[in-house]
Write a structure and sequence with these properties.
The protein is an alpha+beta fold. The chain has nine helices and 14 strands. A six-stranded mixed sheet has the order 3-4-5-6-7-8, with helices on both faces. A six-stranded antiparallel sheet has the order 9-10-11-12-14-13. A two-stranded antiparallel sheet has the order 1-2.
């Protein structure tokens, strides 16, 4: 599909990767910007297992194992492959191996693996009739993305054709739209010792103002005044905090936060909060985001 530059009126035609191995070139770009696309961290590329090779082995920022498979040719059967790799990952011995890989990676060494759900992602130029037929019968949740490549631009989007046939699982799937998420669902993610620290932190946030509304989504707790100014992602022994604030108005003397404004998200600062964090200093940073919104 062509794109149009609205300033110049120039049509930007879709291109093909110039490499002789377009599938590998696609994988290279996805892995380079893996967090921007899928909020995940790369563990291994072309990871060999008995009977196959996983293109991208990763872990999400909330601890879920993640497998990504790529296909450039329409006639390749990508869904069969990722289901095979999913079966491998669910084996008991494989879980130990995966957890070892996570601990050996500097970015993920403190992650606790969440085995309640595995994230499965396929990225293809176009899905075959075999893929579409197969996914109608699968209960496993697979995110099927298509891609298009324009000069210096890579567009990744959920494929509207194949995704319409996916079964919607209810019950144990924590992301189901039929399940009401509660505060207790998030508290259960924390260890017994960290629950008290989380409760104290939450109380301090709510004490910033009577106009603060607290809401619960499957992945995080949101704090709202006019708009979301804070996201809290609960982990076993720490919290990931995301603040929405203009960097020109932000003062972080202890350099406790990470600038993530380059990702293009509404939230622009990231903080890791654990038992050793200075709660007063962290709350002062959150207060800036709160006051910025009002």
């Amino acid at each position: 599909m062509a794109r149009v530059n609205l300033k110049s009126g120039k049509v930007i035609e879709e291109e093909e990767f110039k490499s002789s191995t377009p599938e590998k070139e696609l994988q290279k770009y996805i892995e380079k910007y893996l967090y921007s696309f899928f909020q995940s961290y790369l563990l291994k590329s072309f990871y060999k297992i008995p009977g196959g090779e996983i293109d991208t082995l990763a872990i999400t920022d909330d601890g879920r194992p993640c497998i990504i498979e790529y296909k450039h040719k329409t006639d390749d059967r990508i869904i069969n492959q990722i289901v095979f790799y999913y079966d491998w990952l669910k084996e008991r011995s494989t879980k130990y191996e995966f957890e070892r890989i996570v601990k050996e990676n500097k970015q993920t060494s403190e992650f606790e693996v969440n085995w309640n759900e595995v994230r499965l992602i396929t990225i293809a130029k176009k899905y075959s009739k075999w893929d579409i037929s197969l996914i109608k019968h699968l209960d496993t949740n697979i995110e099927c993305f298509s891609y298009s490549y324009h000069k210096d631009e890579l567009d990744i989007h959920l494929d509207p054709i194949i995704n319409q046939y996916k079964k919607i699982n209810i019950g144990t799937n924590s992301n189901s739209n039929n399940k009401v998420v509660t505060l207790d669902d998030h508290r259960k993610k924390a260890s017994k010792d960290f629950k008290q620290i989380f409760d104290n932190f939450r109380r301090e946030v709510l004490n910033l103002g009577e106009n603060i509304e607290e809401g619960y989504l499957p992945e995080y707790i949101k704090y709202v005044v006019n708009t979301i100014f804070l996201e809290v992602h609960v982990r076993k022994n720490w919290l990931l905090l995301y603040l929405r604030i203009n960097k020109d108005n932000f003062n972080d003397p202890q350099k406790m936060s990470e600038d993530i404004s380059h990702l293009g998200w509404p939230v622009t600062r990231k903080i890791k909060f654990d038992k050793n964090s200075d709660i007063k200093a962290v709350i002062d940073l959150i207060k800036q985001a709160y006051e910025y919104q009002i």
